[in-house]
User: Fold this.
Amino acid sequence: MGHQHRIISLEFLRGLAAFAVMVPHFFLYYLKEPSGGAEIASITAVEVFFVLSGFVLGPQIMLCGKRRNWTTLRTFLLRRWMRTIPSYLIGLLAVSIAFGEIASTDFFRYAGYVQNLFSHYNTHDYYPVAWSLSVEEWFYVTFPPLVLLWIWLTKGIDGWHEYFIAGLVFILAITIIRSIYGNTSDWGPQVRRVVVFRVDSIAYGFVLYLLFQRIKVDWNTQRRRVAFLAFTVTTALLIYVNYEMLQSEAAWLRHINPFVSAAFGMSTVAFFLSLNSLLQGQWVSAVGLYLGRISYPVYLFHLVILYVMSRLPLQLNDSWRFFVYVMGVLLFTTIFFYGVEKPILAARPRYPQVAATGVAPIHDPGAHAQQ
Assistant:
């Protein structure tokens, strides 16, 4: 897809979310600051990634259902795997070399995206960002096939409703599994970062996409204010819940956390969509596109850069160290995107005759070139 098919505000959001993970890790892993605010900021940003991912993949998942064939599903999976796996494996190799973990059992679990499938298995979680990438990969191979099967079984009598019901049933099923089997006493490693308990977080984005398909919001000043209010309220609520969870072992906080996280992610995506028409200047668009392009390598490689930097004999104060860190991440990820990612993205298979399916990839919020 060309630039005109991209939603600039969502490109901005993707880039900002990546930096909202990268920056707190500087304080957590280099300056050894107490977790509190930095950890909450990082956790919050990952929840945005989940909802955003489901949202922008909405048209492709619907396309699989509308065509009702495994060929389209295969194209979807190939596109996703070419988008995510090569860069991930390079990042995994880099961090494994840095930590001396090449060919370890933990390394192979990471490589197969199974280190957190049903529980947290690795003895040394040396690539901590990988947990969310496992959630993504398993969503690709579970949810779209289930949607395709659901549409086939129901004969797709009313397309929108069938997709919407499929999304809600998937969320309900994972919620029940999490409620019954989730170990709330060890929430972080054994629930929040476990695939089988969190894969529904991406489905919320798909449901949001369907809602926007249905209501076709025309953003005006009043609706932007409502979106901003929802974003503000859910942000404050999620920060409160996450902060209280650091201080308390109350099970009810852990039970409502996934729903608060989903509400925050959905309101954040909606708020940034409301800003899209305000972010159409040439330079603003260029910045947004750039941030979107480097967001994935930023997420993958910032810990490697952080690790290397912490071992260099740099005689700098913390402010200058942070500046060098940010510049190093920007330089490396820019080179990586144009030198590695972009050629792979260009080689991905395409969906022929998308317009003939009724899934419009330009007007609909789900159109996103990075996907």
